[in-house]
Write the structure tokens for this entry.
Amino acid sequence: MKSEVSSQKSVVRKQRCEPPVVDCRLWIVDRGLPRLVIYAVVLALLVTHLTTAFAQPDRSAPPKLGPPPALKLPPIQHLKLSNGIPVVLLEKHAVPVVQINLVVRGGAVMDPPDRHGVASMTAAMLMEGAGPRNALQLADAIDYLGARIGTGAGQHTSGINLHTPLAKLDSALTLLSDVARRPSFPLPELDRKRKERLTALTQWRDEPRALASVLFSRTLYGSSHPYGVPTMGNEASLRSMTPGDLKKFHSDYFVPSNVTVIVVGDVSGTMIMPKLEKAFGSWKGKAAAPPSIPSVGQIKEKTLLLVDKPGAAQSVIMIGRVGVKRITDDYFPIVVMNTILGGSFTSRLNQNLREQHGYSYGAGSRFEFRPLPGPFVASASVQTAVTDKALVEFMNELKGMLEEVPDTDLDRAKNYVALGFPGDFQSVGQIAGQLEELVVYNLPDDYFNKYIGRVLAVTKEDVLKAAKKYITPDNLAFIIVGDRSEVETGVTALELAPPTFLTVDEVLGPAPAVEGGQ
Amino acid sequence: MKRLVLLSLFVSSLALAGDGRIAVPYTRFTLPNGLDVVLHEDHGVPTIAVNIWYHVGSGREKPGRTGFAHLFEHIMFEGSKNVPEGKFDEWLEAAGGDNNGSTTTDRTNYFENVPSNALELPLFLESDRMGFLVDAMSPEKVDGQRDVVKNERRQSYENRPYGLASILMSENLFPPEHPYHWPTIGSMDDLTAASFDDVVEFFKTYYVPANASLVIAGDIDPAKTRRIVEQWFSDVPAGPPVPPQPAPVAYVTEEKRIVHEDKVQLPRLYMAWVTPPLYAPGDAELDILASVLAGGKNSRLYKRLVYDMQIAQDVSAFQVSSSLASYFEVIVTARPGHGLSEIEKVVQEELNAVKSAPPSQREVDRAVNQYEASFLDRLENIGTKADLLNGYLTSTGNPDYFNEDLARYKALDPKDIQSVANTYLRDNGRVILSIVPEGKPELAASKEEGK
């Protein structure tokens, strides 16, 4: 593994452009003087011919560009295993690798009421022994193949994702089948993971952004809604969790009628289907009825919570409210509107807080789309001394969205989202992630092909309507994690909302005692 | 290139030649002003990655101006003679493009990912700032980015738990005159001191075409792209040759122990050694040694400290390779109730073990197999490929060095791993840094307790 701390222009980037491998290794600069001397000689000979050799570029205006290319995806193939498990396949033959994502309808919202974190722990424990292998044997087998299996639980679904060289597909599928269907949930491994997670809870106390995020979700949704509780759970639920809880969650939700298999890579339907049939075709089980999930309401009143981190060099600011669910007619207007507000480098929040005022390394906003209304949040880390001024600028930009946006802002945002879209379909993992959205939200196959057109069809009126509906500057939650002694006076004077002051303990509870090692 | 060998059941992969070697075909040419250019065709998506490396990083900074190469990187986005301030990002976003840059000790890179119809736009922007940045420079622009970079330092180092560890480590691993002694992010005082004149001088010294290399990968027609590159960069002046970089030898001849108190809950141990540069003998061996020690559940340190004893929360080990020197580092976070002397003792036992006997063939194969698979993953994204082509070009003169790079790992024997552990991971030539919670220096790794 090579990695290096490198400093970047910006952390504000579209998620889609995160390269899978940011290998910032450093390189030998092997340029001796002799070569430069040769250059100098060559240059001396060539310099008089430069103007005739190439046409001079016209720098008076940016170059005119031709029509943008269309996204041409291979067809999405829909197949089925004998037990009814749907298979969504997209062939991608560039590199001999295969990505197989199992999407399982079962996530944190299905956690038993007093057992937050069961879905998340179930997913993690799939890797701690499965089929004939214990945790160490399983890890050894996967690593030896050069494959990766990742598991995790989200709010509504869990995922088991395999990435493997094509040459190792058969062996990797055997392991994937064991992990998904035959986890052993041994108590000693659960005890180990439990300690690991209790320790992680302790480590959150060091991370101002983690603190802000936990408090933000709780403020929006309350502790009685799953969206208001960290998916990893809390100290009490982690301590009380048993292998039985995990086995039950697994047998209730990890069943064929809840599973979709997504395959992207250097395979064909005729090649992959017998292998998938062998791995998953005999999977049996009946899905439990999922618990009813409480509905999501909007926050009732404006709130300002300030968590004291004495000596902090920056204040973490999160401002927002409950947004909207993924399936809404407002989806594309919201995407474009948010791009203008805080979803790109040239967005208003970033330009204001970073470029104009120098308060922050980067500011942005996003709508998190989920089956139920997820949060809308605008956020930044700002210098402690300008916390109040930064809040004023956040408010200016949020209020500014209630006025019609200029054509240039609208067109830039639409093009940024729409024309950059084909670039999101490069690696097999990236494409499988895109297909997951189709599966989870039951979107039609032509969704991707129509995506660019639908973004480009958004109008100024659509954007204004979305802003008025979802950005309501009079009714927001403000979370600030920073040095109270430095920021209290200025922040209170803004009268954004009646302030409440909290300690880290009041947000996370006391640091859990973790029983020592051996 | 690819040979038709056998009829197979499915279309064969484009990234492998018939003999299983990785195939990344390219065209390379040099412009009269010295700019080195590499083009690579990949029509997987209708997107193009433009990637420029300037062969200057924080290692070239003068005393009192640490952080300058990175500050300069930021200034490069603030407009040039024919690109008004703010338009660099606006024009690219309006074309559906993304951009960024990054700075290390050795190089500064800049990249744009654009739809294939927009190829000319990043070339216009890159050529304009390569040729004519200072025509549009002002002290105000320098001040603006100075604030942004200071905020970056606050966000990524000062307000982050353990954030100062990497800075403390490089200061102690490399002597004051060595280019890797100071951090790429720089010190606040030096950032304050950076002036408009510094910007002009740095640009004229290092931002010359012959000190840069340009890679364009993706949905391109190489012949047409070459003509466009030639046109946009034809009026960029050549500039003087770049002065050679001194390469002082770095070595640590003692065991240095440092303790730093931070706003953290858990103590963390950092142990590091100066090691051979990227691609030098020993470099790949140390990558595999890192994997043997801390890659996956069955690795030696993970299995003992995290899995069996459960006295650590996490373990990592890596070889950070650079052009003048590298360093090898082991990092372990202790669980509540455990001090770093206890952790160090176990780390030392495992270091001793790998020095006294070679790892098993299985351990080495497992690590090499993972490296081999990672080479396939690197071919999946044109931005990643463009940056790799540029890196290989810079380091070896051969942009398509993928197979040679991979061959380094495949040739290794367990004895090679044992050998580098003995040669480079010496007990009497290393830095041991303890980051401990404020007011708890007794949790630090101390020589007496640890041995």
